[in-house]
Amino acid sequence: MIGLTSLTIKRTLATNAIFSSTNANKLLQTALTTKDPITTWTREDVSSLFSLPLNDLLFYSQVQHRQHHNPSEIQLCTLLSIKTGGCTEDCKYCSQSSHNDTGLKATKLLDLDTVFEKAKIAKANNSTRFCMGSAWREMKGRKSALKKIGDMVKKINDELGMETCVTLGMINDEQIKELKDSGLTAYNHNIDTSRSHYKNVISTRSYDDRLRTIKSVNDAGVKVCSGGILGMGETVDDHIDFLHTLSTMEKHPESLPINKLIAIKGTPIEEELKTKYKERKLSLDNILRVICTARLLMPKSIIRLAAGRYTMKEHEQLLCFSAGVNAIFTGEKMLTTMCTGWDEDIAMLKKWGYVPMEAFKKTDPKTDLNVIYNDTKITLLQKAEEEKEKTLAI
């Protein structure tokens, strides 16, 4: 058994010329002591937190993470492309767009048995959320396909006890209700980037179209999975605006995937990164700032390290976990790009003392954590219940 411990942390914020230490102190105190997630952050609030010295930002995001999550748990998620290629959207980063000459052959929707067998393999390898993606702009006129996907969701839920998530493009109130009735856990619809940079990446679907889809999912009572892609030539201001949009939604996303762009040959973004955006390189510290700030702003959300993780070294991934990431995508593929395999991920997690999160169960923090903030003691956590020690299945 893992017993409860009491952990007291004392930290004084270092002053820095690029922001007001008084304002930063106030924002941190608000973020770290709120009982309910805040959805009224201003753009200036987000910028102030994002601009903290990285050493402090990492520390406070870790404190926030340990208040709301068991820091030893990482959810393993597996993503399967159930319908590949032929999408009518013109997303400049996507190999599946019919506008981009990437050599990818379009396929039909996979059948139920094929998808179920893939889900069984994922579960056998400790994945607890099975995600299914189709290369469609929207679900309008796809009544038959929607029913087939609903059957996939129901079978995986009922027979495997796994969480399910789908990403099918734009969806209306009636369609999301049908998926909910099938037992769908979450619906993924990324905002991708900031509103201002979005128009440089996609023209066939508006930013507001994406927000409307997210609202439909929220209104239906299905969990929202929404995040974005880093490394598409965006600026620091775009990172801040991206986080501001997510953190001021009516309800914070239940899960927030952070993707690191893989520039696929034949996509317009691959060439633009060499020319138009050649001075805008995505660095590890940019990624960490986004993760840390997201954790401070959206304390209860599960932050998922998604596409592009296979390009990150082990110590870089560990820094992301420490900053607040508590889910990864693992398995055979991330739709059409490479993904770190299950065995490799299991070995890495075991090495660093992490265990897989169970399906439909995110346990409370293991410690009763108090923070002495600038000489004022603030009790931040409810006392967590004892939990049984879990071990990795190898």
UniProtKB/TrEMBL annotation:
One of its GO terms (cellular component) is mitochondrion. Binds 1 [4Fe-4S] cluster. The cluster is coordinated with 3 cysteines and an exchangeable S-adenosyl-L-methionine. Binds 1 [2Fe-2S] cluster. The cluster is coordinated with 3 cysteines and 1 arginine. Residues 72-300 form the Radical SAM core domain. SUPFAM superfamilies: Radical SAM enzymes. It comes from the Eukaryota. GO terms for molecular function: 2 iron, 2 sulfur cluster binding; 4 iron, 4 sulfur cluster binding; biotin synthase activity; metal ion binding. It holds the Pfam family Radical_SAM. InterPro entries: Aldolase_TIM (IPR013785), BATS_dom (IPR010722), Biotin_synth/BioAB (IPR002684), Biotin_synthase (IPR024177), Elp3/MiaA/NifB-like_rSAM (IPR006638), rSAM (IPR007197), rSAM_sf (IPR058240). Belongs to the radical SAM superfamily. Biotin synthase family. This is biotin synthase. Its cofactor is [2Fe-2S] cluster; [4Fe-4S] cluster. [2Fe-2S] cluster binds at residues 131, 165, 225, 304. SMART domains: BATS, Elp3. Its EC number is 2.8.1.6. GO terms for biological process: biotin biosynthetic process. Transmembrane segments: none annotated. [4Fe-4S] cluster binds at residues 87, 91, 94. Pathway: Cofactor biosynthesis; biotin biosynthesis; biotin from 7,8-diaminononanoate: step 2/2. Keywords: 2Fe-2S, 4Fe-4S, Biotin biosynthesis, Iron, Iron-sulfur, Metal-binding, S-adenosyl-L-methionine, Transferase. It is an enzyme of class 2 (transferase).
